[in-house]
Amino acid sequence: MSDRPLVIAVDGPAASGKGTIAKGLAQHFGLPHLDTGKLYRAAALALLRHDGDPESEFSAVRAAQDIAGLLDDPELKSEMVGGIASRISAYPAVRAALLERQREFAAQPSGAVLDGRDIGTVIAPDATAKLFVTASSEERARRRHAELSASGLPVHLADVLIDIRARDERDSHRSAAPLVQAGDALLLDTTSLDPAAALAEAIRLVESRLRS
Ligand SMILES: Nc1ncnc2c1ncn2[C@@H]1O[C@H](COP(=O)(O)OP(=O)(O)OP(=O)(O)O)[C@@H](O)[C@H]1O
Ligand SMILES: Nc1ccn([C@@H]2O[C@H](COP(=O)(O)O)[C@@H](O)[C@H]2O)c(=O)n1
């Protein structure tokens, strides 16, 4: 077994359960965790609050440089913010503005768990273990719909499914750091797993990497 810090990269599409798994892995292995989607969402929120134009890369980069104080804002969770995050995250200069912070987090001597879209491919290509977490788009829409309804944000399931599919399309087909399973990532399909079973499988997969 290597004595390098344990770094776990968790990537996957929207509402696949990667954040839930990443948090659970962090707790299990005693590591700090970063939800990198929050950085893109915070940039989107900064843009919205400054009446910026998502069509302007310049405007989006300025927003990405101005996310202090926004990382725990409850508005980050809204579908509107998630949609704008997915649009502006396609700009290479926005990704560049958020890169160093993520790399520094991954390089902590303690090790780390990060979840997002490009952790295993761009942010931490040398991660000890990489998981690509997925689930069918219908199941992901069901989960996101339940989450939004529980937090008092009424939305139609059909609209959530359309939004999830649009997000998948944008995240997977952009030229800058697209959502793609890294060649050495282990696939974890959570469609028919509850959160506890998904985490148990994730721990098993990480441990299998630690032994290899
Ligand atoms: N295996 C699972 N079965 C059922 N529900 C789940 C499962 N995993 C997570 N959830 C629920 O689905 C919703 C989305 O999960 P989570 O936030 O972990 O996904 P995510 O991939 O990190 O989403 P995003 O990156 O788009 O914010 C949450 O409400 C979470 O509690
Ligand atoms: N590493 C990442 C993380 C996120 N994004 C983009 O942000 C959007 C919102 O992310 P959530 O995980 O909170 O849903 C997402 O749709 C991606 O477009 C990213 O590009 N890279």
Short description:
This protein is of the alpha/beta class and 212 residues long. It has nine helices and five strands.
Strand and helix map with partners:
Elements: E1 7-11, H1 18-29, E2 33-35, H2 37-49, H3 57-64, H4 79-88, H5 92-106, E3 112-116, H6 119-123, E4 129-134, H7 137-150, H8 157-173, E5 186-189, H9 195-211
Parallel strand pairs: 1-3, 1-4, 2-3, 4-5
The protein binds adenosine-5'-triphosphate (ATP) and the ligand Nc1ccn([C@@H]2O[C@H](COP(=O)(O)O)[C@@H](O)[C@H]2O)c(=O)n1.
Ligand L45E5XJ5 binds at residues 14, 36-37, 40-41, 82, 85-86, 89, 116-118, 167, 171.
Describe the structure.
With 212 residues, the protein is an alpha/beta fold. The chain has helices at residues 18-29, 37-49, 57-64, 79-88, 92-106, 119-123, 137-150, 157-173, 195-211; strands at 7-11, 33-35, 112-116, 129-134, 186-189. α4 packs parallel to α8 (157-173). Adenosine-5'-triphosphate binds next to α1, α7 and α9.
